[in-house]
Design a protein that fits this description.
This protein is of the alpha+beta class. It contains 16 helices and 27 strands. Strands 1, 2, 3, 4, 5, 6, 7, 8, 9, 10, 11, 12, 13 and 14 form a 14-stranded antiparallel β-sheet that branches. Strands 25-26-27 form a 3-stranded antiparallel β-sheet. Helix 8 (375-391) crosses helix 9. The chain is globular. The two termini are 37 Å apart.
Length: 610
């Protein structure tokens, strides 16, 4: 594995925050407290922004894996002198199990070095840098610990190896690991004020307890469909990207990892998109259980609050914050010299009309748990239906969040149709006769407009924007939400045109000019092929895509069509959600004859709890 690539990283999580560890044993990203908090290790985005490395001094090769059914990472270093295993974990609260994991984590990063053979000289280098590398803390030795305080953050470092403090706010040591010996390291975080010292528990016990916590969660979520191993891993990743106190799933745990090296489309994805909501719920439904699904919908209702006449916000912070104003971090050079580095995401200001369908489709999926409606849910769903009726004729920024322009995006119109269709399906539980008549009329009007203005005779395909000649992978959602059957002649032609025009080696770009294949779009193609009756091709493509994860089973947002290099923020929930849902569709199609015969989309098929 080439050092420095996005796919070089492993992912740790504790229900509040995440850390990324590269293949050489360096923690290069950790934002303790919550996913979108300032980093204390940020070398991912700039060499000077902090890291914590533990590695052999001599040349080595690496083999990595997660301990079974966990996000606890084991890295084995092989050197000429012997072998060493490094185990890394973000700790859960002691004794937490099942759905309680991650609710109150101690915010401790633990690392354990175990000698497997020989005698291996090792080096540890601890270099904290606070608030995205802006602040260098004084390191203070206090009995058996090393304390770093700067601004609002405090770190407490304990080690079985004594580190020598340098003059530039770092500490280092060399030590030798012999077969059968163990050296432990723990780093605790706490706010500087109004909080006790960070807890730094015993590393061995903490790792064992965290492993047990992850496995207890996995044992409660027994998916038994096709591609169970891949779904199980992706389910763990999505769980790791869940902010447990609220139940919100962030799009990614990083900011500003580029879609193209040297490009400027660098965004902060440590937030929650309503667009992802329906896809996320469907993935949780298939790979997890109803508890996560209920918490997700409860979070959405609280985040949206009472909706007025303004467009519904399209994204939120993990606790439902709306103002996510973007800021540039000029002190950071960017991943592999690809600035800008930003926090916040100005897409929160955009109109994106597809969110009405995303939320309503999630409610329809969850109808057995939501009915009878609580008053706040009843109000939310009615307003979503009314706004879809009112706004579907409006241009918007679209699924791909174009900045500075608005168009009549076909996928946005389709999702408005979804919102109205599901409202009509809810019937008198959601509205009276006049409401249902209004929604039905608007639904039929939207559908007619899409069929007329979204189709290109020249391309023999539905296009990304009304009255355009440009292919766009977003139209592949049409059969997945029940707008058209996958075997409809025009839809089949669209699938062929999109694959022919945007796909290379199984990777599907979003549009012509998109720098790389977008992973979830490629999985949408898998689902469309399966529902269109091309099951062998769908399985072949799924296996090819699933094989493009890194050595730990992790996806970024995009994959370069020529080199296979992963690009964009990492790991990416949308990519793993795409895998889970595609595996679910393949399972449905193989197990249910009506799906095989009529191309019935999973949006109208309630999967059996397995």
């Amino acid at each position: 594995m080439e050092s420095g690539q996005i796919s070089d990283y492993g992912f740790l999580a504790d229900g509040r925050s995440a850390a990324l560890v590269d293949a050489s044993g360096s923690v290069n990203w950790w934002c303790p407290g919550r996913f979108d908090a300032p980093s204390v290790f940020g070398r991912l985005l700039d060499d000077g922004a902090g890291h914590w490395s533990i590695r052999p001094e001599a040349d080595f090769t690496v083999e990595r894996s997660y301990l079974k059914d966990t996000l606890v990472l084991r890295t084995v270093f092989r050197t000429a002198q012997g072998e060493v295993a490094l185990t890394d974990a973000l700790a859960f609260e002691p004794g937490s199990r099942g759905h309680d994991i991650g609710m109150h984590p101690p915010q401790v990063l633990v690392r354990s070095v175990q000698g497997l053979s020989g005698a291996v000289p090792m080096r540890v280098h601890y270099r904290p840098r606070f608030e995205y590398g802006r602040t260098i803390a004084y390191l203070v030795e206090r009995e058996d610990m090393l304390e770093a305080i700067a601004g609002a953050a405090r770190l407490t470092f304990r080690s079985s190896v004594r580190l020598a403090c340098g003059d530039d706010g770092d500490a280092a040591a060399t030590f030798t690991v012999r077969a059968g010996t163990t050296h432990n390291f723990s780093l605790g975080y706490a706010p500087t004020y109004d909080a006790p010292l960070p807890e730094v528990p015993d590393a061995d016990q903490t790792i064992a307890d965290t492993v047990a916590g992850w496995r207890s969660w996995a044992d409660e979520h027994a998916y038994q469909g096709l591609y169970a191993e891949e779904v199980r891993r992706s389910g763990l990743v999505v769980q790791g990207m869940t902010y447990r106190p609220s139940g919100a799933v962030v799009a990614s745990v990083t900011t500003s990892l580029p879609e193209k090296l040297g490009g400027d489309r660098n965004y902060d994805y440590r937030y929650v998109w309503v667009r992802d909501f329906s896809h996320t719920l469907r993935a949780l439904w298939r790979s997890a259980c109803f508890d996560e699904v209920r918490r997700q919908f409860a979070w959405l209702g609280r985040a949206m609050g009472r909706i007025g006449d303004q467009p519904v916000p399209i994204m939120y912070g993990v606790l439902g914050e709306r103002d996510l104003t973007e800021h540039r971090l000029e002190q950071l050079g960017g991943y592999r010299d690809s600035p800008p580095v930003v926090t916040g995401n100005d897409a929160w200001r955009q109109r994106q009309n597809d969110i009405y369908g995303a939320a309503m489709d999630a409610a329809w999926l969850m109808r057995d748990q939501l009915e009878p409606f609580d008053p706040d849910v009843y109000h939310l769903l009615r307003v979503l239906a009314d706004q879809a009726e009112q706004d579907w004729k409006q241009p918007d920024a679209g699924m791909w969040e174009e900045r500075g322009v608005q168009h009549h995006h076909v996928s946005s119109k389709v999702e408005c149709w979804v919102a109205l269709d599901r409202a009509v399906r809810f019937g008198d539980q959601l509205g009276g006769p006049q409401d249902l008549a209004r929604w039905t009329a608007a639904r039929d009007e939207v559908r007619a407009a899409i069929l007329e203005r979204g189709w290109s005779d020249r391309l023999q395909s539905y296009t990304g924007v009304f009255d355009s000649e440009d292919l766009d992978a977003s139209v592949l959602v049409m059969p997945l939400v029940g707008f058209l059957r996958a075997d409809d002649p025009r839809m089949l032609s669209t699938i062929r045109a999109v694959e022919r025009g945007l796909s290379h080696d199984g990777l599907l770009r979003r549009w012509n000019g998109d720098p790389a294949g977008f992973v979830i779009c490629s999985f949408w193609l898998v689902s469309c092929l399966a529902l269109a009756g091309e099951r062998d091709r769908a399985h072949e493509l799924f296996r090819d895509l699933a094989g493009r994860v890194n050595d730990l089973g992790l996806f970024a947002e995009q994959i370069d069509q020529r080199t296979g290099e992963q690009l964009g923020n990492f790991p990416q929930a949308f990519s793993h959600i795409g895998l889970i849902n595609a595996a679910g569709v393949l399972t449905d199609v193989e197990q249910d004859s009506t799906l095989r015969e009529c191309g019935m989309p999973p949006a109208h098929f309630t999967p059996t709890r397995r």
